[in-house]
Amino acid sequence: MSLHKARIKAFEDILNKDVIDFDQLRKLAFNGIPDEKGLRSVVWKILLHYIPHEKDARESTLKKKRQLYLQFIDEIIVTPGGDADHPLNISPDSSWSTYFKDNEVLLQIDKDVRRLCPEISFFQSATEFPCEKVVNSNGMKRLHKRVEQSVLKYATLERRGLGVAKLSSEIRRSDSLTSGDYVPLNEGCEAHWEVVERMLFLYAKLNPGQGYVQGMNEIIGPIYHTFANDADKDNREHAEADCFFSFTNLMSEIRDFFIRTLDETESGINYMMDRLGSCLRSHDPAVWDRLELQELRPQYYSFRWLTLLLSQEFSLPDVERIWDSLFADEKRFNFLIYICCAMILLVRENLLNGDFASNVKLLQNFPPMDVSLILNKAAEIASA
Amino acid sequence: MAKKTYDLLFKLLLIGDSGVGKTCILFRFSDNHFTTTFISTIGIDFKIKTVELRGKKIKLQIWDTAGQERFHTITTSYYRGAMGIMLVYDITNEKTFDDIVKWLRNIDEHANEDVEKMILGNKCDMEEKRVVSKERGEAIAREHGIRFMETSAKANINIDRAFSELAEAILDKTAGRDADADHARIAVERRPSRAPPARACCS
Lengths: 384, 203
Known about the structure:
By secondary structure, chain A is mainly α. Chain A is built from 19 helices and 2 strands. Chain A folds into 3 domains: 53 residues, Arc Repressor Mutant, subunit A (Orthogonal Bundle); 196 residues, no CATH class; 124 residues, Orthogonal Bundle (Cyclin A, domain 1), CATH 1.10.472. In chain A, strands 1-2 form a two-stranded antiparallel sheet. A 6-stranded mixed sheet of chain B has the order 2-3-1-4-5-6, with helices on both faces. The longest helix of chain B is centred in the C-terminal third of the chain and has 16 residues. Chain B: It comes from Chilo suppressalis.
């Protein structure tokens, strides 16, 4: 049996047990999850605590969660109204005022999901399993419709002959805020970016203290991509619900990175950047000194690295491989710090010879590199 | 001494609401290309371009910032060092224009008093979707005594001009300060690669 096949079998053996040996699964996943047989999809769901360790309980958990998600869509994506309510109602309890406030959040989400992973065509393509309630609602539940810009172009009064007046008006609707290929699909279909838009909107509505922050799209993207490409049809069909809850669980661990008022706390992003700084200083004082001397602050590059779990620094397959290790990390997200530190060490010669500008550029546009090289280096740092 | 590659270094900053085209403007200026396939800027991004003005080689170090509120603590820390700030709105989006006032207040709070400012109304190629007239842009700029231009990163309208005008305004101010800028640069280059002990032992 080839090494690769043996790895697949090792995963299957663990997953088929009545109760999963979580430590064993974590150790195995840490070294990468095979792309085959939807393994990554199921292992991520376990590592992100979405599905239980007990094999028997999985089915019912999934069923319950998937149903709950449909309920969210029903209850949260609604058009306001009612007998006594109208768009000009200034009462703060008016469902219309909430609706307009929500649309501001939606506008930001809409901008961002239309520029998610532009290097691959996946998010622009149609999903196999559109949400029936939404795509057959005559546009009523389509979120992007709510923030579509419409411009009243002109209205002219034409008079021909005796008193025959013809009012011709034209209302033009812009295709989208950002041009490009992220166009909404017709009734009955929807693109993957529309699905991501819905999940982020529901997340923002259900987590009002946090709402939507730019970058969350880059966190949900790889999860949804993995789930929506599952080998199992049933799992693909419910990728949206499964992704929503897995994303929510992941966010519960990293959401403080996204909250400005928590920047200085122990779970905030500044603390993470400091930790990366100390890690670098202890492993390569020469590079650390050099960057200090150039006043090249960690915020210039590591803010993005850490907040987005490196999702903007590498191609999607590499991000997925990196996330195998991140999710399998017993002390999430310590290993993230080590990976970031490894990245810096691997370009140390350039950094030691480069000036400020070339060094910022290098770190902000990390050169393509075999990701296993980075992960091995990170493991070396972790065990040091 | 090595041959100088530039005479002056100007630090510029691009700010404005999310999605107004800051990254596209910068990309058009630095690489002379336009693409709609830009991911959203998280935190801060950076480009360099050297231009020649009045016989001087000027290195522009341009910082591109994220538009959303969350990133303000990260991005406002760059205001202080900036010599020029470009404030961008989208002529097809009313809110981004309304927010200009907010951004100006931000500049007042965080930037140097003598920072050169410029307001850009971007996406002026999309005339059919325009909701902010050029006159309104001019009016708000006049009110605050700031330069104004309408630009299009897509159609390459006024992009180079905007950067040169801003650089020129800074040049007018800095004319007498060449020596200082030079001094700072050489000092950095001559520092030994190892930090002095005082720095090494602090934590």
